[in-house]
């Protein structure tokens, strides 16, 4: 799945468009009404946006895009839809985005079918409609290389959104994407085998698909592969391999799961020497990115003054709260105890009961015991 920035980057022209000989040929063919040349010339106009003539280049690009789009050239219609949706080069206009996507989608343009499905899914420029979203995702999925549509169909079946819930159907669509080499599909199918969702539970098959995704450089798969090496799932336990995959996953510095597990390895001294300061550093990185387990454990480290961190109740409670807001049961339980005792927060029985009940609801085994001690039903 692509984000807005990468979606725009995909539309930027290849380098050969800036070659004068190519551009001259595009212009000649474009002026004779060839829509593919008109589209290529529009893209060529966007290679020099750093120049003083940016507004002129954009206007020229839009002129040629419209000429091609008016001849039902689907790539140009899609590009205009994308720019209308994202407000790139032209003012954002979701109604126009939907209209351009629909025109191209009805010609079988895969990306337009997928984007139109996303517009229905999120109610952008059209009424929100899960069934209509599924219909367009299905059209996109049935294209030769329709992996984005296949993945979204898998997710819609997994959630039971717009279709009856079916883990079997979800796994089938993930497999279609995976067999075309899509790393997200490979990861999703691997996780389905890991859990036994819609396919037989099989750690070896899970590992095979997750390795394929990881070897393509997909950080989420690399992190999961590290976890499998760490826990001996589908392969022998190998802490050195686990650590290597976690570091690969975190090469961008943005993989919170990998950061948390590196911290856990320093905490346990598995694959690395036990080191409380390194543990604190890695947990802090993961916690800052919203990793609930890391937030909770960081709170406990502020409680103990461990890993070179000072004892600090304000920091402790702040991190518990961040984790608890993500329904982390241990963090909810810790907050309940804080409010019950009045340590670091004003004593507040009602607030204590609230957090303890949430902890009990989310599986913290001591929370019902504590509630009974307070004379309260869980």
Please describe what this structure looks like.
This protein has 378 residues and is an all-alpha fold. The protein has four domains: 1-135, Tetratricopeptide repeat domain (Serine Threonine Protein Phosphatase 5, Tetratricopeptide repeat, Alpha Horseshoe); 144-209, Alpha Horseshoe (Serine Threonine Protein Phosphatase 5, Tetratricopeptide repeat), CATH 1.25.40.10; 217-326, Serine Threonine Protein Phosphatase 5, Tetratricopeptide repeat; 333-378, no CATH class. The chain is built from 21 helices and no strands. It has helices at 4-11, 20-31, 35-45, 54-69, 74-86, 94-105, 110-122, 130-141, 147-159, 167-179, 183-195, 203-215, 219-231, 239-249, 256-268, 276-288, 292-304, 313-324, 329-341, 349-361, 366-373. Helix 6 packs across helix 7, helix 11 packs antiparallel against helix 12 and helix 20 (349-361) runs antiparallel to helix 21 (366-373). The chain is elongated and about 85 Å long. The two termini are 42 Å apart. The model is unreliable at 1-6 and 8-18 (pLDDT under 50).
Topology:
Layout: H1 4-11, H2 20-31, H3 35-45, H4 54-69, H5 74-86, H6 94-105, H7 110-122, H8 130-141, H9 147-159, H10 167-179, H11 183-195, H12 203-215, H13 219-231, H14 239-249, H15 256-268, H16 276-288, H17 292-304, H18 313-324, H19 329-341, H20 349-361, H21 366-373
Terminal Cα span: 42 Å
Share of β-strand residues: under 5%
Helix content: 55-70%
Order of SSEs, N→C?
HHHHHHHHHHHHHHHHHHHHH
Largest sheet: none
What is the domain total for the residues? 4
CATH class wording of the largest domain: Mainly Alpha
Radius of gyration using CA atoms only: 26 Å
Tell me the overall shape.
elongated
Total helical elements: 21
The CATH homologous superfamily of the largest domain is called Tetratricopeptide repeat domain
Number of β-strand runs? 0
What is the mean predicted local confidence, pLDDT? 92
Tell me the CATH architecture of the largest domain: Alpha Horseshoe
List segments where confidence is low: pLDDT < 50 over at least 5 consecutive residues. 1-6, 8-18
Stated plainly, the CATH topology of the largest domain is called Serine Threonine Protein Phosphatase 5, Tetratricopeptide repeat
Structural class: mainly alpha
